[in-house]
## 1
Amino acid sequence: MSIPDYMQCAEDHQTVLVVVQPVGIVPEDEFFRIYKRITSVAQVSIRDSQRNLYIRYRHHYLPENNEWGDFQTHRKVVGLISVTTCGSAKEWPQTSDRFHCQKDVFGATLYDSRLLVFGLQGEIAEQQRTDVAFYPSYDDCPDVEKRVEDFVESIFIVLESKRLDRATDKSGDKIPLLCVPFEKKDFVGLDTDSRHYKKCCQGRMRKHVGDLCLQAGMLQDALVHYHMAVELLRSVNDFLWLGAALEGLCSASVIFHYPGGTAGKASGREPSLSLMSFFPSPLSLSPPSGALTANGISADTSSEIGRAKNCLGPEDIIEKYKESISYYGKYKNAGVIELEACVKAVRVLAIQKRVMEASEFLQNAVYINLGQLSEEEKIQRYSILSELYHLIGFHRKSAFFKRVAAMQCVAPTIPEPGWRACYKLLLETLPGYSLCLDPKDFSKGSHRGWAAVQVRLLHELVYASRRMGNPGLSVRHLSFLLQTMLDLLSDQEKKEVTQSLENYTSKCPGGMEVLTLPDGLKLPPVPLSKLPIVRSVKLLDLPVSLRPHKQKGLLENNLSSKSPFIYSPIIMHTRGEERTKKIEFRWVQGDVCEVQLMVYNPMPFELRVEHMGLLTSGVEFEALPAALSLPAESGLYPVTLVGVPRTAGNININGYHTSVFGVTSDCLLDGLPSVRTSGCVVEVIPSLPRLQLSTSLPRSAHPLRPSKEELSSSVSVQLFNGETQQLTITLENIGSEDLETLEVTSKTCNTKEKLFGEFLSWDLEEAVSQLPLKPGQSVTLTVNVKVRLDFSGGENLLQDLNDDGISVTGLPISSPLRQVLKPRAETKALGSESSKTDYNHVKTLEAVMTFKYSGGAGKVEGYYRHLSLGVHVDVEPSVFFTRVSTLPATRTRQCHLLLDVFNSTEHELMVSANNNQDLVLHPSECQRMAIQVAKFDFHTLPQPDQEAVRYTNPKLLEEERLHAQASMISSTLGITWNIISFDGEASVEGVLNQLVLEHLQLAPLQWDVVVNGKPCDCDIIADCKVGDAVPLEVKLTNRSKNAVGPFALTVVPFQDYQNGVQNYDLQDAVTFIGSNTFYIDTVKPTENSVCMGALLFLYTGDFYLNIKFQDDSAGQGKELPPSWFGLPSVHIKALEVRPLSEHH
Amino acid sequence: MLTRLKTQVPLFSMNSYTKLGEKLKLSGLSLASTHSHVIRLGRHNSKMAVCIAVIAKENYPLFIRSVPVQNELKFHYTVHTSLDVVEEKISAVGKAMADQRELYLGLLYPTEDYKVYGYVTNSKVKFVIVVDSSNTSLRDNEIRSMFRKLHNSFTDVMCNPFYNPGDTIQSKAFDSIVSAMMVQAS
């Protein structure tokens, strides 16, 4: 007996052994179908008696094991069921012979046998035989179970008779000595008459009867017999049989205490059995649980009491097992019995949950030597040890033995190594090493397990799967090893592992599919998220010029309706939301979008990552994969992944895709808690056109200084103040959508400088008329750049240039155009360079032109794009006015504007103005220029409407008014300068002060003097005839806002001799008709008043009339400014009335 | 109990594994012998341990050192499987009187070559000492004192503010204590 049945358990002692075997050629599957049906009859309750018979079936049983049948009767084959196929009656005799041969194998021990014949029909099949049953086919055999039950009953009858036979013949005849095979020779020549021998025989027989009682379902009797046997055998030191008797006692007690059985769940053992089928091994099937039914015990109460007395307690069972095993241990040939006893004891202890003791039994079982074991037997033994350790909850031990079994499968002594079995066993060890092949599980848990053994196990899995011829599995396991154990591998190991990974992937590239093993185990994909390690994911906005903007009017209410509060200091988002948080900016369909990853390479060598792309959802997305090469143990390295969204909607960046060492991985961000991200959802809007801008001016090297907004491009140009430059802008549609709308706006920035007039002006009409612009087409736009800045700030420095003290008085100066060129100014300017540069500095003017455009589907959604062009102009001073003053002109409605013009350029320039002669200025020369201008009537300027007035700052309003006045003056003057080819305008706006303005303004009281029906002014000479009455009319028009007057005007005539003498004594020459004083009553605003008088000249000559003004309203109101009373002096030439005198 | 029964020829003479290991090594993967190699060491200094391990509460090694360095993996397996017994012993006692539990667990299990002793701190950190089973002169008290020393040294390691609980122990002081207890590799 060399092959132990590891499946045995204590309750097997009460079973009878039946062998079921095929005879002749029986298809295996058919046989096992029948076998299965037969084995379903595992427990038969016997009529008349309330006992149960339990049957253990085997389809394979070694005859040498059968020889131990006397030692323990459950090892004895008592029944044989043969299954055979018989096609015709001709074959029948042969089949029958075979059956008898088979019977002879177990012949000595058999109680009964049956032959099941399939396929035979006809005459032979008709005959009724108890030992043979005929069935037409394997499918048509309805009463197999019934047949088996009958068979079992017949076995029972034999068993019962044997039991009774043995139990009763205790006295009288000589009791035969039962012995085990290896004892037989020991008893040769022994004294059979000795007391010792007799006791030995008695004891062994008692034990045998006990076995039979147990099998026959008489537990009580069995216990009694066992007790007696133990006593008898102990007295004669028959240790082997004493052990057997003790074990029988234990078995019976176990059956009593644990009616559920000790074998555990049959299903739990099934996988290992199927595994074992790889090697030929005895297939064991233990009886189903419930071995002892309730009615079996409660048959009679008296036996119940007796049982309790004879039965061992749970503690005792183990003690007796120990004793029994120690006795078995004395015999080398009883190794199998000992081993099986150990296994049985362990199962009992597992039920009792006495784990430590169980482990000691197992520890002992490990050391039991069964002589030379075949490799299969070794595997079987390790497997069963593993299972038993598993049973008692020693998972690590269990895994250890399973692994040993796996290694045994591929031992070099085996001619055909069972790599498949090895691999399968290795997989089963995974839980014992707290390893799970799902990387998600691994990254989640804080449990780390025993890394050293885990790494080893993974290596073995890799190797076994490779030898199995499944490189896909190897790749998967290696990936897992790399992914989960990376931190634990040394640099050398990392190199080795990656090298072998590359080797395997060259045969079978690794992917993201779930690998399913033949037995249904699924190997989840292993994304290599640590090669490289990604630290952060950041979605990037489009470049400035491509960013879409929402039309203001269409802006939906962005306030989230989540909270009823407009503002709450409590931020409601959690960490989880962060990832799904929507990002402020938008992407555009059809435009390349970017995501920046910060990655690093943890490997000690260069890492090549191929096909790195984005994984997205929500929107059709065309990822454009990148390949990168990261240096060994690189620091954080930015990687930009790009792609093009092909449809509109919300896009979610779920993760990224890589291909490293031939393994493609989809790394989802959800599974990578260490990755920082500021949101992964972004809105993709429908496509928009794209414009490219080019200009005629060179690109600016320096960006605009206060560049709050980012610019698409910028140009720079250098201009003299007042100069105008044309800028041609070409806009080309480089997108795929039609350009439908285009708007241009501009904004001047850094307005510290005072700017006059429009800086940038353009006409969009022509460009707009070309819309819609097809892709590839372009449109041009001409922009006028005009700089008019105030450079007059340096006037203080030029104080000495105009310190001639020209005052603004009402006195007429006969020679208004006076050159005030002063040579000393030149010398001074040359002498002090510093002061020159001070007012020679270059000013900068910057503006941003914005081109808003839209088209295509994006326009429908209300989106537009804008390009912004920065215009940077360095303005060099050209001419400026250091000082301005006025002189009254000869006419009251006019005046002279005196401008000190300074040429700050290094070139000779020419200044010209409307109605004036040109003035040539040398570099750094200052000249005074006088321009006669008609006084301005600012009332004609458009008045700001009342609404605007009410809501604007009065100061601002005033400024605006001044500005309007100044620009009116400036445009009237039309001062231009010219340097060879350049020309530009010069503006006086900056230098005009309040006083000058007042002088340039028409007085609100307008006086008109009409002599002889002819309006008079300073330089007009009115003719009249001596002796004629000359009518004089003075008309006052009040244009001021208040009523004026009353006034008194006195007309005083005088003669100017042109030598400084004025003769007022003219009573003889001129006489007034009526009063020489006019009284003007109060004149209301916008009204006028006319005074009439007349003069009579008595002599010829040049007369002047001085109209003196006398304010009669003194004391009633405020003084009116004297300039309001600018009455013209009247020059009258009295002529002789020649025809009349001739007439005289 | 059962060990007294008999000591038969060891079943686990795993020469075959060693060969397998060599075979695997040739193919690029090193698969060392997995089980008891019969290398009897430390005869000359038999009072010492051959392997000392510190295992975290979560059952992963914080520290492991063995004398035949070339066959360290074997001890990894030995110590790893001993955890079954440790856990069993803790849970068996733990229910009844967790407070009075003795830290010293005694002999965990004997293998044919070694004896494995265990010790569990109150924070469930385990110490395992493996000694040569041929070493009969070693008394239980000596094992206890070794564990006590080990525990004291471990406490010092834990007191180091720069030590992160759960990390592998790299303290030199601890290392020297362990070295003193171990058989010097000859």
Note: The radius of gyration of chain B is 17 Å.
## 2
Amino acid sequence: MHASNSFTEIFLKHMLLGLQNGVASKNMSFLQRKRAIKLTADVAMAFAKDGAKWSHALIMNLSKKTENRTLLRSILGREYERLTKPCLSWKMPRAKKILQRSFKMHSRIKKGARQLRGVNAASVRAGAAVTRTKVLKRLVPGGEHLDDSSLLEETLDYVISLRAQVDLMHLLVKALDVPNPNLCNKGESGEFLF
Amino acid sequence: MDINEKDKFGLEKTEDHPNYHSLGMPADWPIGNPSMGLVSAPPMGSSPCPSVSMVESFAPSLWIPSTHAQNSGFCDNNVQSSTAASNSLPIGKPVPRPLRLDMGWNPSDSSPKGSGIFLQTGTGVLPPGLSHFPTDSAFIERAARFSCFNGGNLGSMMNTFSAPESLSPYSNTPKGVPGAQIQKSEMNTTEVHMDASLPIDHVSSSRSPMKEPRDKRTSHGAGVSSNESGEPEFSGDGQEEAPNLASAAVDSSSTGLAAKKRKRPCQDMESDQVQGGGLQPSVETAKNNVDTKQKPEQNSSTMATIKSNGKQAKDSSDAPKEDYVHVRARRGQATNSHSLAERVRREKISERMKLLQDLVPGCSKVTGKAVMLDEIINYVQSLQRQVEFLSMKLAAVNPRVDFNVEGLLSKDLLQSRGGPSPAIGFSPDMIHPQLHPSPHGLVQVGMSGIVNPSDALRRAINAQHTSMNGYKEPVPQIPNAWDEELHNVMQMNFGTNPPLNTHELNDKPRERFTM
């Protein structure tokens, strides 16, 4: 499964746009630059994939920090307002999830009081899956409020986009890294050549 | 009933087809459809044949198997065989023209009530001497049903279904044994098929022939009830049935269908039928013609008849009209609504896990949710780390490159997309990125694609190209030749999006950054 061509195009376009606006000819420290580049890449990726929940969540998470906002605005343009608004449809499932979770905790407490922790193979397996699901929810942007099946769907989408992002950035690195062996004066550029 | 039938046959022999239609079934026949089926058969196509067959049925001694090529004749045979032990008619006569019957079904389908009325009137006309015919309406239905079947040894089918019945003497048909299975499956397919496509009336009529041997035990006043009683019998009978059909039909009956949800039953049944015996085209045409009504409605209605309880049938019939997926309880599984919902959920999750398995490299052998989730988490984390690392790299690269070039590159990249064409020597690299440090070659070519319009970068690429000659990947490119190939390579890069050598990147110590 690979990202579509249009996805890659939009991604690249916005990435370069953001790099031009945000990074080029600006006096930034290395780390700042790196952060800006990552931000650009993430935003471009999320923007290119506008149908998924994770993209919306990612942009929202990024826009929460004030220092990102200018860059976000420059990349997203008109869409900024739309994308940074919290998705209203999430609030209901969120409330439901909270209720469910509290209910589960309650029932779990009850069960725990009743029985010793049964070392049941099935329960161990189920527990392992549950903990890993929690980890995955933290990894995937916007995954906390999703149920298992949609979480997996979002993960799928997210993995595809991440892969495309990595490939694209790799290409960019190589493209922009070309003049380094000849033109570089500082030693650090050489470090990043394989 | 039998009397009526015989009378019908006799009339048919003497009269034209429209007259035959005027024949009705006696009032005591609760279901006029089967006879309608019989009635509808003759008016189609060749008129003399059905009457001939009927004549023969009346006079077993005069039976001429060779003439028995018609559907209606066939069903007459079945009627005969099923009814009376006195008849020594061979049953296994092929009925090669189901089309006629199907066509006959069509008008009947369109106006079931009218035909039923016809049948009602006709049955009363049968001579009293034919009392030895079974009075079961199911018998008629079965005859009608058999008339639909194409070719083969319905006699053998009959034998298999009603071994203890009077049909046993008819097991001597020459083709009986070999065709038994086929016929059975055919019958099952068609029967189920008919069930799926025909309205309830036809369903009841079609079902009853199958249950005919058992109908002697049950009194089927209403088609629905008879269908219901027939279902378990059918399921019990269907040991030799085509497995898919059997499972489809039997499951529906055996599970009791307490589940209020159903998966599009028509689709299941139809698919099974197609698999089961190679549906006769006639049956299909009949089905197609019959399907004037909404399929889900019909299916729901047929499924309703098949289900054990009318009430549940109503629920299920209402269900398909709604917009969500309906799940049928599988055989031997709990039909609790909770467990069904959970099963749906579990299936969804497993389906998505399979997709993810394809996506995450090296997960084809992994089974089990937890391990799979582990792999997925690892992969996502590694990808995120790579992004960070690459952004760091880009940060290092950036200050040295003029970003106007990037704008040019982007334009060119976006414009230069065309049909993907294989780049010489670089495709193997792309295919096996993990075997050797191919990304460099890859990126090199890709980069050259990007660089195409810009001279400065081209020079740089040449320089880098020469500097990277030490790598294993093939470096055949002459800088002049790049112009044509760069486009292709870029396209291929973006088109296939091959996973770069992420493992290599993962090993780099520099990739770690605190965030």
Note: Confidence is low (pLDDT under 50) at residues 183-194 of chain A.
